[in-house]
Each structure stands twice: as C-alpha cells, then as structure tokens.
Amino acid sequence: MKKNVWILNHYAATMMAQRGGRHYWMAKELKKKGYHPVIFCANVLHNSNEIIETDGIYTAIEQDGIVFVVVKTPPYTGNGLSRIRNMLGFYQNVKKAMKKYWQKEDVAPDVILASHVHPLTCVAGIQMGKRWKVPTIVEIRDLWPAELIAAGSMKEKSVAASLLYRLEKYLYRRADAVIFTMAGGAKYIQDKKWDVESGGPIDLNKIFYINNGVDVQAFAENAANYPTKDEDLGNKERFHLVYTGSIRRINQIDVLLDTAKELRDQPAIEILIWGAGDYVEQIVRRIREERITNVKYKGVVKKQEVPGILTQSDVNVVHWQNMDVLKYGCSYNKLFEYLAAGKPIFSTVHTGYSILKEENCGLETEGYTPKEFAEDIKKLYNMTEEQRKWLGENAAKAVKQFDFAVLTEKLIQIIENL
C-alpha cells in the first residue's frame, strides 16, 4: 500500500505560489509513484507582505493536484521579534491543523517529513510522530546555529547558541531518519562528537543526503516558452556573467560590484544582475554614483522566465558570503538551475564536496578578494569557445543526478526502509 506522506515546511506557501521548489517537485514525483503527499505550510508568504486568509486554524488548497494545508500564523516583517512570533505560531498551530485535518478528511499520515528552515518545525513533526506512532524524517537544510554564528548573527558562546545546539542534537537523536541537503552532514555530526562511535547518541546509519535540485523538464520547457529578449543579454559583442537570486546584505553583492571595477580593463566583460531584496536600492545607487558601467541591475522577473535568461548567458555566477560551515557542502538552489542551463559556472564560494570541482562544470575560485575574482573571470573569458562549451556540457550532464525525479526516488527508499 502506498503511503500518505505529510510534509511540514513553514515556507512552502511560496512554492505553491510559484508552482516550484523542493517539496512542490517532490510531492509531484511522489504522486506519480502512487503516494499521497500533503504539504503543511504557514499562511504568510516569506519575504513578502502577502497573507493567505484561512478558515479557522487552516485552509486546504489544492494546487496542480497537490494538497497544501495553509496554517494560520501571526504576520511578520524582517528578522526580528515578529518573525520569532511567527515561528512559534506555526509550531503551535501546525500540530492543531494536522489533528483537525486528520479528523475532517479521515486520513492519517504513514510518515511525517519535517523540514528544517527553523528547528521548531522539526520539533512539531517529531512530537506528532511520537504521539501517533508514525515515523518521522527530519530534513536539515540549514545548520543552526552554526550558520547563524558563521554569519555573525549569533555568538558561539551565547546562551542562545547553546540552546540551539542542544535542540539540534535532540532532533538528530529523536528522528527516525535525518536527511541533510549538504553532502557533509554525517561528517558534521562526527566533528561534533555526537555519533555513536564518538560516544554520542546518534546512529549514523539513519543519516542520509539528498541535495536540492531542479525539475529538468520544467526548466527546459520554461526556457523554450519564455525566451528572454533582453537587449543587453542579446548583445553578442559582450561577454556576460549573470547573477540571479536574492539581493540582501548577506549576499554581498557589493563584492560583485568591486569585482566589476577590477575588470574595467576588459571592456567586453559585463555583469548582469537579476533579483530582489532589501539591498537593491544600495546596489543601484553604487552603480550610478561610482559609474560602474560594466554592471547592470536588470530588476525582477517571474520565476518561469529565469531559465530563458540563464541559457543565454556566457557564464552564470554563484556568489554569497564565504563561511567556514560551508566545508560540509552547500545546497544553494540557484546552482542547480545553473547546471540545467548548460553553461559554465563561476563561484566565489569555497565549499566542501564541491559539485563544480567534482563535475568539471565551472571554476570555483581559490581567492577571497575582488581582484582575485576578477583574475578568475578573465581566465573564463580567455578560454576558447570549445573549452567553455565543454564546461557547459559537463553541467548539463551533472544536473541529471539532481533532477527531482531522481532525488525523490532517494526519498522513497528512505520512506520504505523506515
């Protein structure tokens, strides 16, 4: 008998709106295999002012055959106290919504997948799984508090960090299985001395790795159906590096602008930036006031238009803050769209378990400064067409292992072996 899989993802309402994302695509693939996924998410869309009205504690919405149970939560803006209240509200209300949904629909979960954008979602999944005697999979997409400490948002020796480390260890111990989206998840547990061999409580046999990915077919269809007609990207006299993604302070787009200034002796090279975030105004001001003529901010496009942009670039750029915690690998969503685009990739980020290095599909810098980044960009620019084509072909081959049809098969194996 195929299983009812209940997925808890606080921010999955954005996936519903965009018709894409990790659990949207996993749910789609689960349905193809005869499983019955239901996604529980908050009614506040992340990084927006949009709120989905609920009928009581939740509202069930069917999108493309996938049921989203949208849970009532307090509104929030930014990353302050209102967001913490929103997290607490989801933790409390998602458990009530799960119970009411079971009662109303007369359907029970056979397995719970609780996804860690913050740990309280996973706590809720574990608590309901233990109450109902249903196996629970915890999915770790961010290493809290390690990433918060590395980003400078929290001090290593603080009370908050100590509490989060204890909570993190609790999740790994109590879950029936743990999925890391970064390849070095098991190594992270070993380094913390939390594994059984080190005298800790965590059995590494229940630790798994499923990275992020892309719906390869949908990407190709969007590239064909929404081809970009951007005049800058269409100028074949220029060599275009494209960045698409968030534009917040933590993304350090300022460093890309400084890199562009180091490339002024190469007038053919141009950096094009698409994306949204609370740091856009500062970036646009710098471009204007410092007369950085080889960078253009292109604005925001719909998600389905991004493939048409990426497939017409010369090189696609992975860029954000370097952090020591990335030695355990990364699961940067845009990387997989870049692979699907079949173009060379340039990364300013130092990661362990590097897909770019393992698959020979681009250049991951060894440097740390804008001047060093600029020198690496020149290396890509000075390659022959055949050399860049080879890197792009390797990217197109590599993405096949990160197609969500393949990734969901890995999830199914975990579910069936619980």
CATH level-two architecture of the largest domain: 3-Layer(aba) Sandwich
**Topology, number of strands:** 14
- What is the total domain count? 2
Mean pLDDT value: 96
Q: What report would you give on this structure?
A:
The chain has 418 residues and is of the alpha/beta class. The protein folds into two domains: 225 residues, 3-Layer(aba) Sandwich (Rossmann fold), CATH 3.40.50.2000; 186 residues, Rossmann fold, CATH 3.40.50.2000. Helices cover 41% and strands 17% of the residues. The protein has 16 helices and 14 strands. The strands form two sheets. The protein has an eight-stranded mixed beta sheet, with helices on both faces. It has a six-stranded parallel beta sheet with strand order 11-10-9-12-13-14, sandwiched between helices. Strand 7, helix 7 and strand 8 form a beta-alpha-beta unit. Helix 3 runs parallel beside helix 4, helix 9 packs across helix 14 and helix 12 crosses helix 15. The longest helix is centred in the N-terminal third of the chain and has 25 residues. It is globular. The mean pLDDT is 96.
